[in-house]
Amino acid sequence: MKRRSETKRKLSDETGNGLQMAPELMLELARKAAELLVARTETLPGENAWDGEFRQGLEKQLLKDPPEAGRPPEEVIEQAAREILPIAMRLDHPRCFAFIPSAPTWPGVLADFMAAGYNVNACTWLVGSGPSQLELVVIDWLRQWVGYPESAGGLLTSGGSAASLDALVAAREAAGHPERATVYMSDQSHSAHIRAARIIGIRPECIRLTPSDDLFRLDMDALAQAVADDRAAGFKPIAVCANAGTSSTGTIDPIEAMADYCEVEDIWLHVDAAYGGFAVVTEQGKELLRGMERADSIGLDAHKWFFQPYEAGCLLVKDLSTLENAFGVHHDILQDTIWGANHPNFSDRGLQLSRSVRALKIWMSVQTFGMDAFRCAVAKGMELAARAEAFVRENQTLEMLNPASLGIVCFRINPADTAIDEEELAEINKTILARIFWEDKAFISSTLLHGKFSLRLCIVNHTTTWDDVRETLEAAERFGRETLAY
Amino acid sequence: MKRRSETKRKLSDETGNGLQMAPELMLELARKAAELLVARTETLPGENAWDGEFRQGLEKQLLKDPPEAGRPPEEVIEQAAREILPIAMRLDHPRCFAFIPSAPTWPGVLADFMAAGYNVNACTWLVGSGPSQLELVVIDWLRQWVGYPESAGGLLTSGGSAASLDALVAAREAAGHPERATVYMSDQSHSAHIRAARIIGIRPECIRLTPSDDLFRLDMDALAQAVADDRAAGFKPIAVCANAGTSSTGTIDPIEAMADYCEVEDIWLHVDAAYGGFAVVTEQGKELLRGMERADSIGLDAHKWFFQPYEAGCLLVKDLSTLENAFGVHHDILQDTIWGANHPNFSDRGLQLSRSVRALKIWMSVQTFGMDAFRCAVAKGMELAARAEAFVRENQTLEMLNPASLGIVCFRINPADTAIDEEELAEINKTILARIFWEDKAFISSTLLHGKFSLRLCIVNHTTTWDDVRETLEAAERFGRETLAY
Predict the structure, then answer these.
(1) CA nearest B169 in A: which residue?
(2) Could you tell me the sign of the dihedral formed by the alpha carbons of A143, A148, A150, A153, in that order?
(3) Of A85, A92, A165, which is closest to B114 when you measure between CB atoms?
(4) Which of A29, A404, A408, B253 could be bridged to A250 by S-S, CB 3.0 to 4.6 A?
């Protein structure tokens, strides 16, 4: 828009500046960092999926006062790559099946590098019109994928917790900020929603965790009963959260039925699709998630099943004005930032004012690989989960605890020909979990399913192969048989 | 902790993976991105401090469906660097004085690159013990700089807005989550606090913006009166926010007096030091910010005056248990993440569960340059602001509207020998603002000071020289004289 002058300026000699570097050194250090990162991706599959250390040991290495004088930058980079960053769960390891893994693509990583280098702030149109337009583009892709109308919109967030917070605030304001507000979700819902509800001022006793059914889905009768009881007692239901899917089992709540119910009852429906939402780019996932487009808001995390580095969350709302009504604030210091109609300030849509350009990683990786590659990578997770289920069902030592859903498989050691009580099964399976942790390079985690201790694989890494899944299940089975033999 | 196996594994041929790249290409693309970023830092001072575009033009270039097949990655990187990232305010330009600028150091940028590449999640000790320890180290540095006791602690956040939100939630819970809660701040406070208060459920009519005095400081009598009136009317004051300093003028509220008052009244004191807090690393700043160490919580943004890329906020609390009481939640899916006493899960201290490793950039840049360089760079901002004040005071066309405070200078065109009414002065100065915007490479912004339209420089960029400041003031003066001559 403004004409750019192209003249270079020498760094002023007037004031010494100890925070700058010569261009040659900058390039050299970037090369070093890139080499370390690329070498890591090559050696990663041979490493363990987890590393970690007690605080005492790490403190000895790292808890030091900041130096008055600087150190050689190569040494600093090496220390970060040797002593700090690898001492962690490797969320992108092909055998990291714990919690919800995250395996970014290289263009996504480079996008974060470029976003930091340009250091743009996607807060307002005035301060970042290019980045704001890019966010509109990426939001529009997501809008179309979930089946929202053109009037829908949203913003990128730090993750599902922030998306849930922003959604609940919008829901509360849309309901007129009533006293004695209540929110509803199944007992399988993510703790992020409980925390978000507490943050916005819903008292713990007003957060209703309704019982889930045998397949860990929200029970519609229990929801209707809870709402009816609350209304009779003078509470004001402001939001229902649906899971798509749950972090424990990947279960998808009955979204269509919940949408019907929430329409009739005039309650905001938020769909937590942080983990499972990106399944919508596949035919199978679109079918499974049907009804999501009827929700008032949807949270999705691109750092989960869309292969981006942290942090890349998203909140979509069906009616964009609900967000802007809830979050828009005036500030004299920002009086210059009102660009005019149809030029959104993303800071009016959520918690953050200053915001890095999270859209860049999604845009760059999709541009580089194309949607077909993303579709195949998401579909592979579901396919591997289905194969894992078949493996478990055919195996005499293992028991499925819930059908595979999206990318999650819940199972345990429980031989078909024995009758071991629940307490002992829990102890056995805790032992298996520990043995995989200590003796195998895979890393899996556990959950509780209506009181039953369950092992659990979450398969959402595009580099994971069937061998990775099979050998991990075989290790669990082998450790199981050994434990049972004692 | 676990033995690492060092064998490499070939990428499996079993499943094609369209989201991976050959190591040589990864390195080549990283080199390209680095070259673009380094070349940018060389040409930046010769460019305008601002660029931007209307939505219509940007949409034409960018609003396209995602491609089914990928594009050459070099082309994608070039498009981002040509059409998207530079179409924005250049917050790190030496003549970007608008709002609160942000000029990161190269090790900070590389740290974000490495954080994305390793993709660690600093949510829990189990998932990221190295990154968690690093965050403890950086938090400990900040704790010492602000003068907090060893029992204090905190977490890194997306920015000041999130810090303020987390602080207000902790304040509310520490006060027992009363009905009819009220919060207090001066009318100069950042809108982030108003938004944070609204998010946690404080109704707009319960957010008290008390009048500021002639120097834009919170007025203690007005605060005491407001609290007394509210208590008499049955409201429950839960928090007072102090500015250190305000975004408009850099003004520091009377923190000592506010601390005395809040102690007696048993009200949580939060200090918003998002912009000014890092002045504490200098002798002069430490003196100016005295009393901050008595607050219950302090928010600071390392992406402002500590030379880090977005996002790098921080919340410190004097009593760490206030945060953990407010934010800790239990979740079955995370049952494996309880490491044991003294191994904190940072996700129990704030809104976010998944969290990137924001500590790395602060740590790497301090290690590389040393604290002396940071101290000098922060001090230079204050020194340049003081020189700008002297320049304005000696100039017959310009008028200081408030003494320079921290790095901020508020002034306007108002010749000493004329008597122009306020309305006309506002129009004249809006014209000057527009002319600087369109005709000069500097970018400055405006604010309202007790109704007076003010031009404003915020000088917190380590690459800014006195020439940058002087020539911008001279341009304002020249445009002023020309405008007045019509």
Answers:
(1) A199
(2) negative
(3) A85
(4) A408
CB-nearest to B53 from A40, A120, A129 is A129
Compute the distance between CA of residue A174 and CA of residue A151 in angstroms, rounded to an integer.
17
- Cβ contact, residue pair B42, A8, below 8 Å: yes
HSE, side-chain direction, 13 A CA sphere, residue B420: 19
Q: Which of A5, A25, A83, A85 to mutate to test the interface with B (most CBs of B within 10 A)?
A: A85
User: What is the 3 state secondary structure string of chain B?
Assistant: CCCCCCCCCCCCCCCCCCCCCCHHHHHHHHHHHHHHHHHHHHHHHHCCCCCCCCHHHHHHHHCCCCCCCCCCHHHHHHHHHHHHCCCCCCCCCCCECCCCCCCCCHHHHHHHHHHHHHCCCCCCCCCCHHHHHHHHHHHHHHHHHHCCCCCCEEEEECCHHHHHHHHHHHHHHHCCCCCCEEEEEECCCCHHHHHHHHHCCCCHHHEEEECECCCCCECHHHHHHHHHHHHHCCCEEEEEEEEECCCCCCCECCHHHHHHHHHHHCCEEEEEECCCHHHHHCHHHHHHCCCHHHCCEEEEEHHHHCCCCCCCEEEEECCHHHHHHHHCCCCHHHHHHCCCCCCCCHHHHCCCCCCCCCHHHHHHHHHHHCHHHHHHHHHHHHHHHHHHHHHHHHCCCEEEEEEEECCEEEEEECCCCCCCCHHHHHHHHHHHHHHHHHHCCCECEEEEECCEEEEEEECCCCCCCHHHHHHHHHHHHHHHHHHHHC
Sign of the Cα torsion B114, B119, B121, B126 reads negative
The minimal CB distance from A119 to the residues B38, B47, B310 is found for B310
| Cβ contact A370–B67 (<8 Å) | yes
The Cα B125–Cα A55 span in angstroms is: 9
CB B369 within 8 A of CB B105: yes
Interface-testing mutation among B42, B333, B408, B466, with chain A (most A C-beta atoms within 10 A): B333
Nearest residue on chain B to A344, alpha-carbon basis: B55
Do A385 and A409 meet the contact criterion of CB atoms below 8 Å apart?
yes
Q: Do B126 and A66 touch (CB under 8 A)?
A: no
Nearest CB neighbour to A343, from listed B47, B55, B352: B55
Set of chain A residues whose Cβ sits within 8 Å of the Cβ of B2: 48, 50-52, 438
Tell me, what's the ipTM? 0.96
What span, in angstroms and rounded, lies between the C-alpha atoms of A362 and A377?
A: 15
Residue B3 has pLDDT above 90, yes or no: no
Give me the residue label for tokens 């009905």: B179
Query: Are A351 and B162 inside 8 Å of each other by CB?
Result: yes
Which residue of A lies nearest to B73 if distances are taken between CA atoms?
A368
pLDDT tens by residue, B53-79? 999 999 999 999 999 999 999 999 999
Give chain B positions within 8 Å (CB) of A467: 12, 14
pTM over 0.80, yes/no: yes
Residue A323's nearest CA partner among A200, A171, A179 is A171
Given this model, what pLDDT does residue A339 score? Answer: 79
B116 vs A112: CB contact, 8 Å cut-off? yes
Which residues on B lie below 8 Å from A76 (Cβ)?
107, 364, 367-368
Calculate what percentage of chain B has a pLDDT beyond 90: 93
Asked if B221 and B211 touch (Cβ cutoff 8 Å), the reply is no
List, for residues B403-449, the tens digit of each pLDDT value. Answer: 999 999 999 999 998 899 999 999 999 999 999 999 999 999 999 99
Is B45 in Cβ contact with A15 (below 8 Å)? no
Contacts of A91 in chain B (CB under 8 A): 119-121, 127
The pair of three-digit structure tokens given for residue A472, joined into one six-digit string: 């991990």
